[in-house]
């Protein structure tokens, strides 16, 4: 069967799924949007998969609503053209912005190409949550329209994959629960492996000797970047000379730099690193940090948390307790606190306790990796995706 997998973000585990489907005998094209700035997976690293990006040579204008809308509509046209070129028997589409999804869904409907929606977030719900206190009245209207367009697209999918049970109430309301399957996200266990704390990447960036707090991943509307710096400041105030390292790109970098200057915190700010070095990057941290805004609730599951588990490191999560990732951090023995400034002191107390006891760090690291090895079963996931795609292709 010819399969086109489009993951807008280009993240690691989606690439691993494409490789697994190809290993099962399918002709797989893996597509992503190169203009979307984020940490990428092993794109191009699997000979059995055809890699074909869209949006090449561009950068998404995230803070210009009008330009971003036009870009996303154009990417929808590019993906529709890619479908026409590849002539797949079925399409798997995930992480796709609503305007782009509408264009592609209309094309798939017109050409009768079956497709499966891989829903990583309920975008309409997320937009309305953020619109309530951060964005303009005009955006509130757009969020309302986007929610209905997202529902329209998913109603026309042949099957829907969601990443947690929290999505099911939405699909009951949409009338799509009968074709919705829950498949939790995972991370590539054999690509993201535990490394020594004193590794080559840590030495290259002078991180091998000082206590290290590390964040690696996207920082956007669903995050409060300043919390990372504030926790690092509170840890240093307790007499621990910790250094903060943040691997990200985008507008949050300026916020981090300003907050670090204001609080006099040494911070290493780096762009996204090559995927083949991600194990070393995560291994360079004594404590790995993740932040997620309250508005994200139970729908957004930051994939960086799954990578952190593979790295075998203690995890500090400043996130809503109802989030699926928070449950994973809890199970791994990490610390989960609300994502606000009121949690900074408690977070710092936990970090200092972990940094002061190597045995505790190692125990929490083993617990995190053990959880990843229990939960991240690629064989079962790929079989389930194959079943859904075959069913969709057979009509």
Low-confidence regions: none
Question: Hey, roughly how much beta strand do the residues contain?
Answer: 5-15%
Q: Quick one: overall form?
A: globular
CATH architecture of the largest domain: 3-Layer(aba) Sandwich
Indicate the structural class. Answer: alpha/beta
User: What percent of residues adopt helix (DSSP H or I)?
Assistant: 40-55%
Q: Helical stretch count?
A: 15
Neighbour order of strands in the largest sheet: 3-2-1-4-5-6-7
Radius of gyration using CA atoms only: 21 Å
Report on this structure.
This protein is of the alpha/beta class and 395 residues long. The protein has 15 helices and 13 strands. Strand 9, helix 9 and strand 10 form a beta-alpha-beta unit.
Summarize the model shown:
By secondary structure, the protein is an alpha/beta fold. Helices cover 46% and strands 14% of the residues. The protein has a 7-stranded parallel beta sheet, with helices on both faces.
From the structure above, extract its key features.
globular, 14% strand, Rossmann fold, 395 residues, 13 strands, alpha/beta, 7-stranded parallel β-sheet, single chain
């Amino acid at each position: 069967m010819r399969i086109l997998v489009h993951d807008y973000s280009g993240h690691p585990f989606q690439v691993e799924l494409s490789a697994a489907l190809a290993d099962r005998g399918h002709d797989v094209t893996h597509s992503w949007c190169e203009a979307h700035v984020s940490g990428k997976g092993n794109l191009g690293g699997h000979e059995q998969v055809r890699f074909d990006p869209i949006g090449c040579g561009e950068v998404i204008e995230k803070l210009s609503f009008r330009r971003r809308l036009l870009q996303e509509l154009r990417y929808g046209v590019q993906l529709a053209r890619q479908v026409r070129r590849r002539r797949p028997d079925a399409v798997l589409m995930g992480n796709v912005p609503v305007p782009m999804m509408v264009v592609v869904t209309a094309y798939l409907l017109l050409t009768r190409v079956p497709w499966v929606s891989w829903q990583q977030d309920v975008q309409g719900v997320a937009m309305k949550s953020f619109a309530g206190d951060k964005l303009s009245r005009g955006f509130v209207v757009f969020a309302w329209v986007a929610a209905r367009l997202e529902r329209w697209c998913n109603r026309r999918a042949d099957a829907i994959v969601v990443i947690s049970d929290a999505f099911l109430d939405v699909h009951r309301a949409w009338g799509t629960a009968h074709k919705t399957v829950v498949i939790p996200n995972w991370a590539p266990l054999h690509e993201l492996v535990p490394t020594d704390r004193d590794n080559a990447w840590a030495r290259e960036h002078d991180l091998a000797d000082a206590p290290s707090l590390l964040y690696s991943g996207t920082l956007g509307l669903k995050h409060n970047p300043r919390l990372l710096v504030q926790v690092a400041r509170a840890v240093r105030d307790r007499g621990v000379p910790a250094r903060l390292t943040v691997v990200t790109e985008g507008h949050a970098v300026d916020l981090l730099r300003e907050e670090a200057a204001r609080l006099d915190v040494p911070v290493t700010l780096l762009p996204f690193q090559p995927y083949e070095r991600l194990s070393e990057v995560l291994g360079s941290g004594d404590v790995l940090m993740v932040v997620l805004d309250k508005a994200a609730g139970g729908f957004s599951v930051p994939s960086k948390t799954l990578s952190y588990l593979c790295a075998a490191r203690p995890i500090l999560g400043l996130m809503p307790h109802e989030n699926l990732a928070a449950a994973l951090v809890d199970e791994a023995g990490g610390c989960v606190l609300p994502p606000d400034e009121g949690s900074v002191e408690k977070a710092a107390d936990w970090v200092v306790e972990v940094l002061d006891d190597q045995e505790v760090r190692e125990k929490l690291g083993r617990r995190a990796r053990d959880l990843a090895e229990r939960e991240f079963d690629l064989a079962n996931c790929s079989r389930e995706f194959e079943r859904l795609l075959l069913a969709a292709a057979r009509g």
